[in-house]
Automatic annotation (TrEMBL):
Name of the protein: Glycosyltransferase
Source organism: Anisodus tanguticus
SUPFAM superfamilies in alphabetical order: UDP-Glycosyltransferase/glycogen phosphorylase (SSF53756)
Regions annotated as coiled coil: none
EC numbers for this chain: 2.4.1.-
One Pfam family recorded for the sequence: UDPGT
Length: 449
């Protein structure tokens, strides 16, 4: 690994939620391993949950007197104001002739950060925590300057993407009225194409080849993923086994002990991430479907969701299942007992499953998840998607048959074979001389010299 000769300093500003912080912390570790000084900027309430090694990444915490607002809209504005008031002071505090601050790597949804960076004489790199395909969709389907007409039902044809039906589109495109403020936020990220000095994506070249080739004809893009702890991929960063932040307390010992007692490939791992909320009827159908599948299952049900489980299910499930509030997902996916991942298709979870060679049952909920599910099933061919009824509910029969198809039927063999192929390609991308490894090196040379 080449070490950058110029002693320089990179600031990293993630949006303070788990799914955005994790990949940006991992990217910071990759930068630090190349001899670059890295400071992660976050808020007090997050930094207290981050036992970071001070020899690799420094944390600059922004104090706040009051708890962050619950409302998403208010939180966005609150974070914007907080960073705007404090960034200049932070940069001045970190002033060092030996390690000059050169660039701000900012979460792509904090579009205002590029202006702050430029005002302080810094370059700005927008970090996208979702797929490149999402960016192409948002770019072409921006309601303010829509380049592609969409009547709500027709199939959408976009450059570099497969044909997309309504069920494959992000919820902010096909259900814009349901999420007006979030829709405005995701489409505002298009500003980064115009204003940011670089675009960084948590993806890798062969994973979204056509999409990436198209974006490269328009903008300065660097794919630098998959950004997961090194010990699960290239093992080049010593002891890098976890992201370094968990806003939920995982049941590590319980999960791993239980998995150790199961046969190879016998367990279905079920998780819908840190944000998704299933309705009571859907929870009941999912619970019954898991029982009907006659397989072992490890199901993450957050504490706030437990009251939706059917009463009789918890006692019945003890025979074949383990229900926990949170778990060490990477360790679980890497365990030989896990043969299938029943997932909401969040981008981090999707990349983790691809990187660890685990076939999926896709049950997307909202945001980018329907598009990720389309790629999982039709492009990368590492999973199948459950089919919902007209009322949107996935039945227990559909849950059980989908699990059986992945685990027991001929298609499952093909899915597993493809999953192993993507695992190898993911490792190659981040390993020495791989596409993402070279892109990080090139990015640093461009920025720091």
């Amino acid at each position: 690994m080449e070490e950058i000769p110029n002693k320089s300093h990179v600031l990293v500003l993630p949006f303070p939620v788990q799914g955005h912080i994790n990949p940006m912390v991992q990217f910071s570790k990759r930068l630090a391993s190349r001899g670059v000084k890295v400071t992660l900027i976050t808020i007090d309430s997050i930094s207290k949950s981050m036992p970071m090694n001070s020899n690799t990444i420094k944390i600059e915490s922004i104090p706040h007197d009051e708890a962050p607002p619950d409302s998403y809209d208010n939180f966005l504005e609150w974070f914007h104001v907080l960073v705007s008031k404090n960034l200049r002071q932070i940069v001045e505090k970190l002033y060092d002739l030996e390690y000059p601050v050169k660039v701000l790597v900012f979460d792509s949804i904090t579009t205002w950060a590029i202006d702050l960076a430029h005002q302080l004489g810094l370059k700005g790199a927008a970090f996208f925590t979702q797929s490149c395909a999402l960016s192409v969709i948002y770019y072409h389907m921006d309601p303010e300057k829509r380049k592609v007409p969409f009547d709500g039902n027709s199939v959408v044809e976009l450059p570099s993407l497969p044909l997309l039906e309504k069920k494959d589109l992000p919820s902010f495109v096909c259900q814009i009225d349901l999420y007006p403020s979030l829709a405005k936020l995701v489409f505002s990220r298009n500003i980064n194409f115009k204003n940011a000095d670089w675009l960084l994506y948590n993806s890798f070249d062969v994973l979204e080849k056509e999409v990436i080739d198209w974006i490269r004809t328009q903008y300065r893009i660097k794919t630098i993923g998959p950004i997961i702890p090194s010990m699960y991929l290239d093992k080049r960063l010593k002891d890098d086994k976890e992201y370094g932040l968990s806003l939920f307390k995982p049941n590590n010992e319980t999960c791993m002990k239980w998995l150790d007692s199961r046969e190879i490939g016998s367990v279905v791992y079920v998780s819908f991430g840190s944000l998704a909320n299933l309705g009571e009827q859907q929870m009941e159908e999912l619970a019954s479907g898991l029982m009907m599948s006659n397989c072992y299952f490890l199901w993450v049900v957050r504490a706030t969701e437990e009251n939706k489980l059917p009463n009789e299910f918890i006692s019945k499930a003890k025979e074949n299942g383990l229900i926990v509030n949170w778990c060490p997902q990477l360790d679980v996916l890497a365990h030989q007992a896990v043969g299938c991942f029943f997932t909401h298709c969040g981008w981090n979870s999707t990349l983790e499953a691809l990187s660890l060679g685990v076939p999926m049952v896709a049950m997307p909920q909202w945001s980018d998840q329907p598009t990720n599910a389309k790629f999982i099933c039709d492009v990368w061919q590492t999973g199948i998607r459950v089919k919902a009824r007209e009322n949107g509910v996935i039945t227990r029969e559909e849950v059980a048959s989908s699990i059986r198809e992945v685990r027991e039927e001929e298609k499952g063999i093909m899915l597993k074979k493809n999953a192993i192929k993507w695992k190898q390609l993911a490792k190659e991308a981040v390993d020495e001389g791989g596409s993402s490894d070279k892109n990080i090196e090139e990015f640093l040379k461009l920025v720091l010299h």
